Amino acid sequence: MQKKSSRPNKRDRAPRRVWSGAEPLFPPLMPFAARALEILPRALAKVWPLNKAHRASLPDDIAELSSLLTQDRSQLRHSYWSKPNFVSAYLYYFLPWNILRQCRLLQDLPLPPLHTDGQNWLLDAGSGSLSLPIALWLARQDLREKKLKILALDKSRRPMELGRAIFESLAELAGLQAWPASLVKGSFEKAANSLPDGKIWLFSAANVLNEIVSGRRQGKRFKSQEFMAEDNENDLQLEPYFDAIPAFMEKGAAFLSIEPGTRLGGECMMHLREFAVANGYCAHSPCAHQEKCPLRARNRQQATINHSSLGSAWCHFTFDTSGAPVWLLELSRKAGLDKKSLSLSPLLLSATVPVDKGQPGKCRIISRPFPVPNLSEYCRYGCEKNGLAILPDAKWLEDGALVPFSRPAKPEKDKKSGAVIVEPPVVADVK
Question: Were 259 and a residue from 133, 215, 345, 363 both cysteine, which residue would form a disulfide, CB within 3.0 to 4.6 Å?
């Protein structure tokens, strides 16, 4: 008879940790928004119809514009809105994906209640083709039939006019009314002069920060190391943007900034958060606390050791493409841009600080699973008020989820990252 080994196996050495109570940052798309995205091509066709030749060239036009926007921004000497093939590519590809991303974020975002006295305005700076107002209208049934008005601001009027027409066409197909939108051509810094009568309920800005930084570096490739190393320079670049924020932040209003989930977008958002918290604003979401950003602190600490490691971590969240209509997935495939996941770097601010100044006993998941020797093959980083945390056995948690956790009395730290190893509030030993 074979002698049974007395050596405990890996499963016996440590209990299995069961994480529960996670709140997703990007919940599945609501049915109304999913149906609206399915019929979006009908609304687009009313506003920007494509003939047979333009439809045939659409995948190639999308691929070319994607390359210019993501790799060769220095080549965008003239606005792509002046080229009909690029307008088609943006409206039929980039606009739907932007709406889908923002719908997933906006569905459960803790936006402030509408003002009960007077008119409520959504002030959307850098609005482009109104992707954020459209996404908000689709995502939030509680707001869809409210008397909300839009003030859209952008340096170019044409994309705003197209966006408004698409919004109205889509609402008509759904048998509803779009929110009325006023359009103002002008720079973000001068937007305060366009404030309407009534109260600003939400001040939003999507894809603004990264364009300020990259736009002022036109003619040379942007390097993330420069952004992290040259704080004084970037303060000067972003100073007009930051200085304009207080003009819109009335009591009870909120400021929502959304950047691409790229390294540049995430670092811009971390820079904005640092400015905001230092000036008394509250970071409501995705932040679970009001302390210093642990990723920005980690980057600076690494920089003192190895300058090349600057910008090695940035705040962004990745999620799946669930809810994407079949026509959009097929168009992406034809353009050679198959999408398996989406990403964003969002930040919701207000001048109102919550009583608890954060989410006690909760952390925000900020990474995909990774192995830690002698701990778990499926660890994830979390962001909480004391800094970075590591959650073992967290394979099934989603990036961006807000998760309850327990900090041991004598917590261990990961040698590589310095992050504290935390546990679920209740540890279950599953045999």
Answer: 345
The sign one gets for the Cα dihedral 10, 11, 17, 18 is positive
Q: Report the alpha-carbon distance of residue 138 to residue 126 in Å, rounded.
A: 20
Exposure string over 380-399, b if 16+ CB within 10 A, otherwise e: bbbbbbebbbbbbbbeebbb
Q: Which residues does 209 contact at the CB level (< 8 Å), separation at least 6?
A: 238, 241, 257, 259, 265, 268, 269, 271, 272
3-state helix, strand, coil in the chain (%, to 5): 40, 20, 40
* Structure tokens, 83: 């080229």
Q: DSSP 3-state assignment of 260?
A: strand
Question: From its phi and psi, is residue 425 left (phi > 0), alpha (psi between -120 and 50) or beta?
Answer: alpha
Which tens digits make up the pLDDT trace of 7-19? 444 444 455 678 9
> What angle is formed at CA 140 by the lines to CA 137 and CA 141, rounded to 5 degrees?
100
Using a 10 angstrom Cβ sphere, with 0-12 exposed, 13-18 middle and 19 or more buried, the burial of residue 44 is buried
- pLDDT per position as a tens digit, 321-368: 999 999 999 999 999 998 989 999 999 998 876 544 555 689 999 999
Q: What is the pTM of this model?
A: 0.88
DSSP-based three-state secondary structure for 9? coil
What is the separation, in whole angstroms, between the first and last Cα of the chain?
Answer: 26
- CA–CA dist 412, 301 (Å, integer): 20
User: What's the mean pLDDT in 238-245?
Assistant: 71
Q: How far apart are CA 347 and CA 173, in angstroms?
A: 32
Average pLDDT over residues 35-54: 97
